[in-house]
Every structure is written in structure tokens, then in C-alpha cells.
Fold each of these.
Amino acid sequence: MTTQMECVTMDLNYIAVENLPAGYLVLDVRDHCRIVKTNARVRACLGLNDETLEGRTIEDLKDYFDVDADWCRELMAQALAQDRGAEVTRYCPRQKKWFRILAGASEGRLLSLYLSDVTEERASVAWMRTLVEGAQDIVFFLSEDLVVENVITEKEADLFVPRDRLVGRSLEEVLEGGNLAALREGVAYAGTHEDKFRYEYASADRSRWFLAEIFAMATREKRGFVLSIRDITRQKKLEMALLARNEQYALAIQGSNDGIWDWNLKTDDLYLSPHWKRQLGYEDHELTNSFKTFYSLIVLEDRERVSRRVADYLEGRIQSYKLEFRMAHKSGEVRWILARGEALRDEKGVPYRMAGSHTDITDQRRTVEALEASEERLRQMAESIDDVFWLTDARTGRMLYVNPAYEKIWGQPVDRLYKREQSFIEAIVDEDLPGVTDHYRRYLEGEDFDMTYRVRTPGGEVRHIHAKSRPVHDEAGKVIRHVGIARDVTPLHRVEAEKAAIFDEYEQVFNGTQDSMFLVERTGEGELRYIRNNRAHQQSTGLSLEMIRGKTPRELAGEELGSRIEGNYRRCLEEKRPLRYEENLDLGGTEEDLAHHPDPYSG
């Protein structure tokens, strides 16, 4: 379930990527490499107009971009294997351009691609770079089937065979000591990529090392390959010597630049850098460099977990060592530490040295815990209310959150709504669906969504729903989400229906009786005013509803008679009991004695 906090984070990320100078794509590799996010720049890179990309798969872009789902999954694996992501180049046939692609992975399923146009850079640099760098190399010019067409070298002695015996022969026949499998892989790579394929190999007796680089070249008349071979024996020997002397520092760099530690598993010596100790409030001389020191500073409740994780990594049960735990600061405060490390293993896979870093993440941890607590409070509040609360993404239409009340009112599981956002519409009764559709269309155009409609539960029960929704805008005023609330008003609807039925019955009695009836209301100012009379009263008195409505007894019958009538009405109200009396009234010139029976009523 996607949380509200995650929604806020997504909104901020969206504003940032829209301003990137590079094209930007985010793919859900597990969902058929479906595009979940883009920016405007990516459409310009691929030669698209205003087509919507979100929701389409990478396969839909085959005519624009020479990639497919398998390529994306392979790139995902490379990005996950490298902390800094992966970098490749790819051709766009529609634009006839090459793009450098920086790939990053997150959550184990999202692949982020940043596209930069490198067509001019590749076209102008690739050929000249090889020739310039090849001044000290042996450079072979090869046909498509790897036949040597020319050789450039300053030192004839470096050639494996004389120059005149190379031209016209297959390179695989003359490349003595070279890694032919790597050469074939390089040719296959260069045939589909603009950049070089590089590999190193040793001579047969391993006394010399070479760096080989191969890339494709093409003119209007022909295609082929350029292979440069450089002797890197001296450089290689220096690198191996340097690696042997600085093994400890190389491992530390791989771990982190924070508190550094290095553990010699053969001697059990543990090096703790001064900064490692300062993170916990100690100077370098205050703590001995030993595993005992490290273990004693771990909070007691976390020690077993740390020991188990270290053992699992060293014994190969897990592939990486990364762990958060608590350590005791000199001040007595507890600090949260992120530990990362990597082991060196011998040819049998047995670890003999492990090094890494400690990063103090106490502040970040407290921030996350505060946010999680706030989010939990919001979630509990949403899940405790009886109304349906929901949140959708305005760009994709996807349901981001809906509380459990949906299951109670709609009679459908929440998971079904997450999988198919339109499933709630299918429950709307057919007679109400056109009105809901039209109302929602006008809502998308800027009107408020506020209406009542009916839904039918899987059990066949019809419920009346009162739904409201409003858009949520970003800083630029663009709608990014829709938030709404839906309430089951079926009981209220039933009460209103019952009230309407009672009113109908009252009207039948009020106007169906042969007795004259009228209603008098006491206003907030204490005045008594007629509000209606029935048909029998109108016929017997000649007073229509329009003639009596809103008038006082004095205004209708004169000051003397009206005062007497009003006095009787007030006595009836004050004593809260019916009165019975007769009154002589002048009805259009005819005086009649009429029996009056006023009854008090409070509603």
C-alpha cells in the first residue's frame, strides 16, 4: 500500500525531474517494463510530439528507440550490481542519433533512465581519439570479416609476425597470445554500439600485458573495425604492486569515507580509524583497536543481530554486509550507526580481510521515525472513520490509497480496487451511471464533484452514496492528485423517504377533512401569524391561503376581534392544552357562530 508520505515525496521528485536537461524515463521492470514517469525532454530526444508515454511499455517505443524489455532487465541487473548505476549508449533510428544512457535502480523494480544526446560527440571524437591515442599502439584496420587490411606501428619489433605477412590474413590467425573469445565479443559489441569495447589480456607466458580496444568504423563505401593494442606491462605491474601495498585503503574506500574499520581475519586484528572513534565521542587514544572494543559498544539488545549478520556474510549466506544498529556514545547517548563492509576472499572463496565504514545516521533515523509516527497517526485516523477516504494520482489515474471503509460500504475488497481502479464504477446502478460520468467530466474541467448516487453491492443491496472530491495542485498550479470522501447515506435516505410518506399522509388528512383547519405559528419575536389553512376553511370562510398567510389575527379580523382571538391562541399555547369555545364572526357580511378548537403543537 502506498503511503501518503510516499505521495508527497513523489510529488517533489516530479517537480525536480521536469527541469532536468536530460530525457528522463522511469520503467517498472516487473510490470512488462511499463513507463510510470517521464519528463518533457524525453519526447524531444525520441522525436515524439505530445504523445502520452505513461502507461505504455518500452516495447511500444521500438520504432523510436532501439531497446526492448530484455535489454531493460539486463541494464537493471547492471545498475543493481554497481553502486553508481550503469552507463551505456544506444541508437535512436527515428532521430538517427546516439544517446548516452545513465541507468539507476530502486525498490528492486524501478529503472530510471537519463538520456543525453552524444551523436556529435561520438561522430567527431571516436575516430580521431583512436588515432591520437594509438601513436604508441599497434593499430589494425580490419574488414567486416576481420581480415587485416592495414597495420600502423612505430616499432616493427612489437609485431607478432612481419607486417607483410599480416595484411590479407585473418586476425584470429596472427593474434598470438590474444584472448580470441574477448575479441569476438568485442566485434559483436562494436557492431551495435558506437563506443569502444576494451579488454586486457596477457601473453602466453604471462610476462607481458596488453590493452586491446576495438570499435566499428563506417564510410559510404565500406564497413570495418579498428583494433588498437597497447603494451601495458609496466603499468600493470605497478598497479598490482600498489594494490598489494594499499589493500587496506582500497577496501576502506569501497566501504565509506566516514568512520573506517579494517579487520584482518587471519590475525583477528581490527583497525578503527580516529573518525570512527570520534563518532562515539572518543579520541583515538581512548579506545584500543580490537574487535572487543567494537562489540562492547554495541547496545546489548543489538549484539546478537550484528554477530549473526557478520557470520552470515563471511560464510556466504548473504551477498552483502549492510546493517543498522545502535551503539553507546561516550556521553551515554545512544547513536544509530549504518555499517557497510566488503570482504576479500582467496581463490577458494575464503575471506581473509574485511573492511568498511560506519556512518552516524541518528538524525536521519529520528526524522524517519517522526515521519513514520505522523504517517501512522494519519493512517489510524483514516482507517477509523466510517466514510470512504481515497487518493488517486492525477497523471496516471492510479489509486494511491483507500481506507478499509470501502470494503464495508461497497462490499468489495480493497485489493481489487488497487488492481482495477475502475471497479468501483462497475458497482454504480445503471440509471445513475450517466449522471456520475457527466458530473466527473465537469469535475475534470474545474467544477466541484459533489453528488449522490447509488451502488449495488455483490450481495444485491442498493446503497445511496454521497461523494465529494477536490483536486490537489503542485506549486505550479498543476493538478497532481485527486482526494475524495464518500459517505453511505442510505439510512438518511430512508428517513427522508419515510418523512415524505408521512407528509403525504398528513396532506391527505389536512385537506381531506370536512372540518376547517388552519395553522398558526409563533415567530421568534413572539408574534402569532397564520401560515396555512385547508380547503374546508377556505370554502367556509372565503379566506384563501394567500389572504391569511403571514398575517396576525389583528391584521385579519381587526383590532377588537383579533385581540380576542390572539388571546385565546396564547392561552392555548401557555397552558399547553386544547381550548373549546365559540366565536361569532362576520364572514362577508354574514355573521355566524363558529366552534373553535385550537390545539397547541411544538415541533
Amino acid sequence: MSPHRERLGGQLAALAALALLVAVFTLDPTPAVSPDAILRAARGLAGALIWILAATGLGGAILGSSSLAGALFLGTGVLGLGLFGLAWVGLFSGPALGGVAVAASCGWLLRPKIELPKLDAAGWAVALVCGAPALINALAPPTDTDEIYQHLAIPSQLLHVRGLLGGLLHPDASRPIPVHTLYAAAMSFGGEPAPKLLHLLWAAVGLNHLRGLGDRWLGAPAGGAAALTLLGSYTFARELGLAYNNLPAAWWGLLAVEAAVAGRRKELAAYAGMALACKYTAAPVVVAAYLITWRGLGPRAVPTMAALTAGALAWVAPYWLRNASEGLHPLFPYAGWPEAEGIVFTYNERYGLGRDWASMLLLPWNMVVHAETTSYKFLGQVSPAGLLAIPGMALAAWSRPAARPVLAAAAVAFVGWALGPHWLRYLLPAAPLLGLAVGAAAVALPSWGRAVLVIGGVLGLPASWGPWLGPTAQEAAVVVGATPRETLLKERVPGWGAIEYINKYTESDARVALLFSWPGYYVERPYVLGSVEDHVPARHLLLTQGDAALTTLRDLGVTHAVVGEVRFLKKTYPFLDDERFRREFTEPEAALGELLLKEGTVVFEEGRYAVWRFPDGDR
């Protein structure tokens, strides 16, 4: 395509995006934004930008010369681990965080050479169309399950206790938390929206880097095809404005693969370790990056790979050592729940459409055609462009040698995901590599083949963007201050009435147990337990303590409990026999009900949630 035609296409895309936004606001005029909403957004953005600039300065100083993504994410990884150390010694407070931000920002004094991203009109158009709903998500009150039980709850707890929590009472905080320490630091400066805005800025930098990397490695339009494939997938797009750890893991994994291709081994070890520390589901991408390096080493393979592996694991080891020092399994809470035989954190069989050979061979088809965003059939949605691109990937592997390392890495990452739970969200760390594979196909295919990819991607948008944009439209009125945030919270947060009761009608020194419930982020009292993943913490307590479960909680100072009625269904776990299902799911929930009737008093009840007070708990 000539430069003139490319510019014209970009300008037309920008005009189309602008026309779309004008039409939306004309048909459904948004009320004027309140001053409080503007101040809240400005403070959140400032809190996010402080840590963007600090991380980029630090990473740039370490690397000397780098892309913006390379400097930003290297600095982010170093800061994440450093802030974890600060929390471990109990110094996670505002003044200390301010000192860290200033010290990291001093990296700019060394004047690192950082290549700033460039966007043409088409890039700005895509940023505008996708960025507007993502910005609404970022500024809206958190209602996503994982945010309110983990990704924002952990940072909130870090700031409250000025240090680390963890163990059986706070199992989510025993995970590796390099991203969550950054979220807490951003929240300390910018309030609630800051972590989500920080995540959105990370996503913008990562997507732009993916776009440039694809064009550089594979030729135009590979980079654009890769980025658009991801943005056209619900599972990717819905996380843009949330505070999650899947996309940061994806960008660290992509940078690890880039470093492996370029032969920059120290960077490979660092980015690989940061990806693993962020999310263990990044392991297949890390393996792919290491295989690229191993392939060209020859006789030096064993010692070099051993050194690189040690370098990567150094970023994860502090979290393992922390768990071990507290008498827990290094991989807790994913493994090693003490004194509870058979406890499984995640059942692989629960997701997808089967794990027999036929189902595994049909996995690329099933994950596109049969996926649903509201059921355990992959629990998400991806663009059909990836499925349609498979013949093009084969053509690229045969005809374009430059594409082979990318395609091989994508294949390794995909197979690694397929061996675990078939939850599409767990595929996100591999998403940039899979997007590049689609980009390689777009380059190798003739014009009519590229047209098929485009048409398939467009036809897949309603299934992917519908579930994303529908809830986002409801959030807009809250974001601009036209609708009270409590209206949205009552509608979307399970057990919100019970949480309100705790916050309004219990003493400030009350301590709460979340049993078969999880909105810990909104509990304005110290709390224990409360994570999801099949409600393992509550079931573990009941399975190991038996009739003494509530006595154990009272001995720990718990005065109230927010209890949800789960009603575990056997059809959700068809792979378990009746006896095991009854022992691990039905009996613990029934036992809790009996104990509460004997030892507690219900003080609030709404729907499937209730607040129980324990003896001597009404203080």
C-alpha cells in the first residue's frame, strides 16, 4: 500500500471513529460531568502517571537504551519486587512510597535513550474507539469479582496494615504480588481509580509495542492485525479498564520472547522472571522464550540455560521464601493446603468441553464457536480471526522463515495453556504471541485471504464487544456523577446489603469473616478468608476444624460473619463421584449452617446473604 493510500485509510478510520462517538452521544446524551467526578479522575490519573514515570525512568537507567515498553516494564518489575520487600518489613506507608517514587524517578537524570511510540491516524482511531469504554471501566466503581476479592482487595489491605497479610486467613495475599504492590502504591497517591488507570496505561503501551514489533519482525500489516485481533476479543478487551494481572504478564512474556530472539539474555531472564512472578500461567510463554534461546546455543546449552533459569527464578523466589518462612507450601495457595487431603484449588475439568483426545484436537474450533462469557464453556470469547488464520499460519511457516520462531513460540504457548484449565482468561499471557501468529498469516495470505480475516473479525465483534459494552454503558452515568455509585453496587456486588450493614452498624474494632462470600474490597473492617476459586478457604476451615470452626474464628477475634448461600450443584462438577462431591462441597456448607444456628445470631438477611453475630460480638 502506498504511503498516500495508507494515510488516507487512517484518516477515514479516524473520521469513522469520531462519527461513531458523535452518534452515540447524540442518541444518548451523557449528562454534564460533575466537578467531583473530574477531580476524582484527575487524581487517579496523576497517581497512575507517577508510577509510570518512575518505572520508566528506573528501567531506562538500567537499560540505557530501550523502547518505551522495555524500560517501563523492566522498571515496573523492579519496583514491584522492591515494594514487596518494603511491605515484608512493615514499612509500606505513604512517606516510604513517596521516597521510592522519587528515587526511581531519578533514573531520568541519566538521560536514558527511550524510543517513544508513534501512532498514525488509524492507530489514534483504534485508541479512541477502544479507549473510551475502557476509560469508563477504569473510572467506574469496582464490581468485577476478581477485583473485589483479590486485585483491589490486596492493595487495600496492604495500605491498611502497612505490610503483608497472608496464610490460611488471607490466602490470596500469599500469592506472588508484584503487580498488587504497584496497585497499592498507585492507590495511595491517586485513590480508587489509580490502579485501574495504571493497568490501562500499561495495556496501551503494550499494545503499541506489539503493533510495532509485529511490523518489524513480520512486515506490515502483521502488527496491526495482531493488535486488532486482541482488541476484537472480549476476554482481552474487558480487562483493559480493570486492575488485573493477566495483561502485565502478557507484556513481560512478549518482552522475554523479544529478548530471546535478539539474543539479549540478561533481559530474557529478567522479563521471564517478572512474567512468572506476575502470573504462573505465563509459564508456557517463558518456556517458548527459553526454547528460542536454547535452539542456538549448541554445546553451551546446559550451563547457559541453567544460569538463565536461575536468573528468572530469582524474581519468583522471594515469594516462595516468604511462604516457606510462614510454614506454608512455597506455591500456596495454589498447592499445599495443610491438613486437608484432596483440596484442589482449581479443577482443570471444570472448564471447556472435555479433555479427551477428540476434544483436545477440536480445541481451536470449540474455543471460538462454543465459548460463552457466562458459563464454564471457556468462560470468555475470542475473535474468530484466530481460527480463520490457521491455514495462513501454515502457509507462513512454509514460505516465510522469519515467521517460524514466532509461530513456534505461539504453538508452545497454546499447547501449554491447553494442558491446564480451558479458561480463556488463562490464555491471556500468550495472547500477544497468538496475535502475532495471526499477523504472520495476514502477511502470508493473498489479499482475498486477508479480506476473510477482516470479515471474520468484524462478524465476531457483536459476540465479543456486546458483553463488554453493555455493562459499560450502565457505568457511564455513575462515572460522570449523574447516578450514585451505590446504585451500581447494589445491582452488581453480591451481598452488598450485608456489606453495608457491616460498615454502618458494627463497631470500628469489629472483625469479620467472609464465608462463602468475597467482596472484601468494600468491607471497612478487618476481615479474614473470603476468596473464590470454589470457596477453598471457607471449605478448608470447615473440613479441618469441623465442629470447632466457628470457635477457632472467635478465638482469632472474629465478631461477625458475612455468609453466602452457595448451593453447590453436582452438575457443575460432573467429573467428581458422588461421595467426593458430598464430602468436599455439600457437607461443609451444610455443616456451616448448623454451626451458625447453634453458635451465632443472624442480625441481617437479604437474598442469599446474611450477617451473623457471634457471642460477645456486639461490642
Amino acid sequence: MVNKPMSAATPSFAFPSPQVEILPRPPLVMRRPLALLDGRAYAAAWLDVRITHPPAPDSKGRSGAPARVVEEKRLFILRDDGICFGDGAGEPLTSLPVTLQLSETPPPQRCWSAEGVAAFRQGHRPLPLDIFARLTSVLDTFLDFQRSLADQRTMTELLATYALATWLLDAFHVIGYLWPNGDRGCGKTQCLLLMAEVCHLGLVVQGGASFATLRDMADCGATLAFDDAENLASAARTDPDKRTLLLAGNRRGSVVSLKEPVGKGRWQTRLVNTFCPRLFSAIRLPDPVLASRTLVVPMARTTDRRRANAEPLDFSFRPCHRRTLVDDLWALAVTALPAFAAGGYEARAAAQARFSGRELEPWRALLAVVLWLDDHDSLGSLRRPHPGQEALPQRHSWWSEPPDAGVGLFTRLEALSWRYQEERPQLENDDLTRLVVRSLCGCAVRASVADGAADSPPASGCHPAPDRAAGHDRGPGRCQRRRLERARHPGLAAPRGPRAGPTTPAPCTARRRAREPAV
């Protein structure tokens, strides 16, 4: 019997084919430490953890080596309902309904601390008016706004409102910039340092900061505070990339496109989100383009010895604990963001403001936060009496009408914004064309007022004002006008007219007559 070799048959395995499903919408991506996604607010916290690794057994199953302990920082995500996602926090990061793409880790002093996260998980929710009162007291301790846009309390309320607006950035479509302006020693840098401490991820930027640093911090939504911004006000002495980043960040959806290397010889396009708050301090005023998006805050050298010697970075001098204030700001932001965005405060502020368009843009976020604070002021703690009402006599006991409780915070700051628009030409001396046009309009108004006064009968002994419409004020005379015309056009022939006495013919006429034959 002959054994025939058997052909080895190669077994074929059928691998399951991947299933492709079209999603109805793109997945939610969290790219900033504080974000509002699909009506829910999320906040990132980088906390220190201690990880204990059990000893690994040897080949015989014995574990004689000690346990290995590692301390490191890990990312945790907190939601507005108090749920914390992360290893050891109850819910793992894999159960988070959003995708994390957080490229940068903010400075530890600006992040949410472990004590604040623990208090938030236990149900601690700060009140908006309490946070606002603490912010106002901190600003009033260090800053003096004499000879500024308004009184001391109104100016501290304005800056405290802007600080709250930086924490609610995801609920706005446009935000303005602040520009503390004044001479040397007026407290501009002090104001900038203090605002960076209470604003969302505040970072004081010096002139030598690189474009890559500013780009990454703007992508995180940090508040960029530029000290000594004189060079930024000049387009000739500013880095074009930095200036593009500064001018393209006051509106939602503003991006800067960059090319980044990926591997060897490959490049990809990256869109950097530049929508973030910005503050500037400089002796000079901003250029017209930047001034249209900026609120200039005039400051003068203080005469208050206590405020002049106060150091913003001396936390023991503050009226409230700094770490507790920052933790409460994180808790307030992640709790209030959904309700604030759903309340439509930005649209309400735009509808109630007296101006519109480009002039309203720097004030939209401020007025929206003010409306939100007024809605929480059920006891009227933010209301102040009308100017001069303190001097009025008290009403009788039989008076049936309740006393006037004063005006709210929105009325005061909206009136401040209106006065700011009226005084804005004094803060824009670089725009010469606008100043010339406004000066001509003022001259025309004064001329019309003078014409109206000329129509009234003059008093005895007084001569009536010259009527320009009747030709009494016609400017230069006829001879003077001719001399001016000949000076402008030298080739123009001299005007002909009757002359008294004998005349001498022109030289060209005498030469022509000499060439003519005698008759």
C-alpha cells in the first residue's frame, strides 16, 4: 500500500468586520478647565494623590519586598450636580460623557484645591452676593479710584463684576478688555496683580513672553494681564503674531490657525481658540482699534497712605482668605454657569442698555452679570439711594407711600457706561479724524445757536450780532481773494480792469508793436 502525501490545507479564519455607525452629532469635547457643554458645566481639578502599589510576589509566591508608594498629580472632573469623576472619586473618568482634551495644566495657585473640592462634594454652594461682597472688599482694600470714572464704591463694583464675568466666560458671545491708565506710581500694576489673583486663571504677562505661551494660555481660557503694554499699543514695535492674538480674542469663535509638525516631514493645521479676557496696564492710551474693545480706567496717584503701602501679594493683609475665595469662585462658576446661560442675561442686558453696536460690546458681559446679581438681591443689599436723597427730610409716619429703596446695581453701572461713552473722546486722542469731525460738529452747533440768538431783539445800547446768512461776515474781501488766487495759481493772468492815470503797455505788447510795419 502506497501512502500518498496529504496536502496541508491552510485553515481560513473569518474575522468579524468592524461596524460603522454614523453619529447624529459630534461628541462633546472638553478643551478648557471650565467649560459649558450641552447645558452642563464641568470643571477640572488637578489634585495630589498617593498611590500605593502592593509588592509583587516572587517565583515562589512570596512577597517580601515592601509596598511601593508614589505621589503624583491626577486629573479629576467635577460636574455642576456635585459628581466627581476620577480614580478614587467614586466615578471613573471612563464614565464621563465628554471627551477630555486638556493640553495645559494651569499653575497650582489658580486651580481648585483639595479642600475646596471636598467641600463642594459635601454640598457647599457659595452665594453670588457673598462672593461679590468679598471681591469688592478686596479691591477696595488695595485700590484707590479718586478722580476716576466714578466714586470709589462704583469703581470697585465695576472691577468685581468684570472678575465674575471671567468665570462665566462660556455664557458670553463677546467680552471687553480693561485698560488701567495713568502716570507712574498711580497703581496700574497693583490693579493688574490684584485682578489676576481673583480672575479665572489670571496670569500676569511681561513683555518677554513668547507667542507659544500666550497661545496655549488663551486656548485654556485664562485671563491674560499684560503689564507695561506701551509696546503693544504700537503696531510697528509689536510682534505681528502677538498683536493678532490680542485683537482677535474678544468674540466667541475667534481662532488663530497654526501649522504644527507631526512626525517626520508632516504638518497639520491647529486652530487655537483665542476667546479669553485680557487686561492691560500702560501709561499710553490704546490705539483706536484696541480702544474700541477696551474700557479705559483712569487712575491717579493715591493720597491714602494705607492703600499706597498695601501689597497685593501679601495675603495676610486681605480682608478674606485668598485660598477660600478662589475655591468658592470655582464652585460658584461650575454651579451657576448652566442657569446663567439659560437665563439669557446677555440678551436682556443688550435690550435694556441705552446704546448699541460697537459701543455696547465692551459692556455686554458686565451688564449681564449685573442683571444676574440684581436678580439674586432679594433683600436689596445692592441698592443705593438716589444722589442727594440722603439730604432729604424724613417722611412723616402717616405717609402711606413706602420710602424709595434706591436704584439697583444695573442702573448705576448702566449710567456709568453712558457717561463713559460721553467722555470717551477725551480718552481717544490718537484718533485725530474723529476728533476733527466732532470739533466741526461742535462749531456748527455753536453757529446755529448764535444764529438763533441773532433773531431775538437786541438790548438797548447793544448792536445786533452779524448775520452770516445775510452776508455781513463774508471773510476776506475781493482784492484779498484775488491775491490768494494768484498765489495758488501763478500762471493765472492778472485781472483786467479800469485803471486811473496813464497806463504802460505790457512788455510783450511793446515788442509786438515794434515789429509791425509803419503805415
Amino acid sequence: MLQPTNINNGDSVKALFVIVILTACVYIQVIHFDFVSYDDFTYVKENPHIADGLTFKGILWALSAGYDSNWFPLTWLSHMTDVTVFGKNNPGGHHFTNLMIHLINVCLLFWLFKLMSKGDIFLSVGVAALFALHPLAVETVAWISERKNLLCAMFWFLSLICYVKYGQEHHFYFASLLFFILALMSKPMAVTLPFVILLLDFWPLRRLSTVRWQKIAAEKIPFLTLTVLSSLVTFKLQHDAGVTADVNILPLGFRILNSVNSYVQYLIELVYPVHLAVIYPYAAKAMGYPIILKTLVLILITVFALLKARRYPYLIIGWLCYLGTLVPVIQIVQIGLAPMSDRYTYIPMTGIYIMMGFGINDLLLQFPRLKCFLLSVIILSLSTFSVMTCFQAATWKNSHSLYKHAIEVSPYNFVAYNNYGLDLMDHGQTDEAIAAFSKGLNIMPTSKNINYSMYLALMKKGRVDEAQVHLLISTYFLKDRDKQIALALIKINQHERAVYFLTWYTKNNPADKEALKALADSLIKEKQHDKIQ
């Protein structure tokens, strides 16, 4: 097992202080940023349960609700606390809290690697700095809605720290389990943590050779039970909300290929973090010869790590950690239509940091003359990443800059065109919005969201006949097509036409309360009170 060694705690504190200050300087701009329309309105700004701050009623709601197809009560409670402390509709307060949690996570990762490396400050500082300053972390830190990711990572690191200490000192087991529960209550992505602690038993704790397997298995039962329960609750909530996309939309084979592409693409972005965006389109061109090469890359890395497992166990442990922790968000089980997202790497990249950190350490032991060269490369890389992170964070200033940047770096991004157009509409720039929707439809003509957005924009301009075509396309594949058409008509005060669609719809769906209410309201608007039942 690992045993703690004597180290200079003063040097640790100084090194960590420098990292924290530098990270704060890079990200301090976020406290002046606004809410963005991508989830922030749903999660925080327009969430009626958050508006009153931290109240007893709000606490009960957070613990019991599956709001927006998710159950993460600690995330809701943190946003309520922000409202109580900073006031309603104050995005700066939420951004400040995000930044503070990220800085805490930097310190926790430093602590974790310090334990794993038996007090190696150089390794721990390097990993913490890379985690703190890499552009891939920007989406998690600068996006208010990703509070759940930050909180999940904080409790994730605390759970792993306690488990490593448990492996060293035979204490902290229940603390590790408690922090795992809190991580699940922040974001269900934490379900893979039992897999990670089993890897830690192999290395660096090396408990598999010193502890009976029955004891190791028994230790994992509470963790695995919580994982199963959390997975079932999450899947049911998202399935009931329609978030889990129909497998007929994207076949299993395509989703597997996309997962291979994502695994390798994240590694590329770790080394070459350019063209990062809040939304990525599916890379159709990457599904030809490139996917064959990327598959070979994954196979070769896996084979190399396995062959070197005895001498360099951190390679296979870090690699399996990376592969495993991405499983919930790699889109084999399809949640929504986004193929990949930078925020998904916030925790999984820890596995790659294990490979890099301990690998560089071993390289320096074997070739000490490389120390100056490697140190120069590390400093140059961190300096470059810091500048890139500063500019990447600036794109999150508001919705306009966020979607405009996404379009600039990924021109086939039809989702970004739709969101960009909607933001233009909100600011009264309808003609510009129509132009944006048109570009999005050139990429994805059957997109129900863009067609519906175009319908709303054209109606604003009085181009009714053109608008109707887009309305029909937007609702063509929906089971409640007539209802959706009616609700769209109500939005533009065409209640007489809405009554026609709702009358037919409610005859076949008499239990749909939303449709019945919409029908009653439209009949009242049309002064047809006698037809209200």
C-alpha cells in the first residue's frame, strides 16, 4: 500500500496559492457575464422554484422534484443559496460561485494527486495547473447551468481522497461513501465512481494483493447499489420527458462510431484546444476513413497500456479511468442529439492526467537531463493554455457572443444557427434572425426546431403563407402534431384556427389537460362560451 512520506508543506501551500491566483485572474471576467439562453433560463432565471431563494418550501421541492428531467437537489439548493445571497436575477453571483467551486476543485485535485504520488509536489502542481487552466474546463466554469458538473466534481474528488486515505489508514470509508452520495445528488454522471475506486485498489493502493477479495467486493456493494438506483431514476426521468432520443433517429452502429470519434476528439482537444464550441454538430465526414484511424488509435493505446501494466500500472489505470468515466455521456445510450461536449471531460480527463503526470515523472527519473527541456515545455504549454482559456471564456459573455462563436468555429452547426437566430429575434432583429434560420435550414432542412423558429420569425414579418410551410414541417413527426400547431397559432393570437386543431385533438386525447385548457382559453377569446365543456 501507499504510505505517506514527509514533504515540505510550505512549498505545497505556496505552489497551490500561485495556481489558484493565476486561475482566478484568468476567470475573474465571468462575474460580469450574463445568463445565456442555453439552459440558464430554464435552470435559474425563469425557474419559479429558484426565484424565492433558499426557503423550506424550496428545499422540499429540490429533494423531491425531477425538474427538467433530472434529479440533482444539491444543485438546485446551491442556486437557491445564490439567489438568497446575491439577489434575484443577478448572474454575476452565480458566476462567482461557479468560479469559487472550480478553485476548490483545483485544490482537491492537487490533494488527491499528492496522496496518490506519496507527496510529489512537482507532479501534483503540474496536474492541478493543467486542470485549472486548460480551455476544456471553460464550458463547465463559465456556464451557470453547469453548476451541477462543478459540484459533482467537488464531491467526486472528496470521495476519492477519502477512499485513498481509507486504503492507507483504514479510515474514511463512510466519508467516501457519503461524498459519493452527495456527488450523485449534484449530477448523476458520478455513477462510475465505484469503477474508479476499484481501479485505485489495483494501483496505487495495491490492495488487490494484500486484502481478501471478499472484503474488497463487500466494500463496493453500497457504492454499486447507489449507482444502480441513480441510473434507474435518471433514465426514467429522461425517458418520461422524451430526452432519450428514439434509437431509430440514430442507429446503434452510428452511435458507437460517434463514441469512438468523441473519445479520440477529446484527446485531440486536450493537446490542440482550438475551435471549441458550446454545441457541436455530428461530424458526418469523420465517419469514413478517419473513424478507422481513430479506432486504431484507441486499440493501440489500450494494447500499449496493457502490455506496460506491470511496470507502469498508472498507464492502464488512467486509460481505463478515462474510458469508463465517459461512458454515461459518450452517447451510446443517446441523451438528446449532441454528439459531444467539452463539459463532459471535466472529470474524465483526470485519467489522462494520471497517465501524463506519472509518465513524465518516470521519464525524468530515467532521463534526468530532460528536466530543463520538459519544464520549459510545461511552462510554455500552461502559459499558452491560460491565454486560450481567457479568450474562450470571453465567448460566454452573453448568448449572442456564445452562438456567434459556435457558428464561426463550426460552420455546419445548425443548432447554433437556430439559437443565434432566436437571440436575434429577442433583440428585435427579425430580418437577421431569418437569415440565420435560413443558413441552418440549408444544413438541416428537416429540423423541427429551426422550422418552428422560422415560422415564428416569418409570422412576425407578416409572411403567413411561407410561415405555414415551416410550421407543418416542424410538427410533421410529432405525435401531438395538431396540438403543437394550435399552441403555435395561439402564440400569434390566431385563436379561431387554434380551436379547429384543438377540437379534433381533444376528441382523441380527452385526458390532455394542457390541450383542454388551451381550447377553453381560445373559445373564450373567440367568445364561443357555449362550446366550453
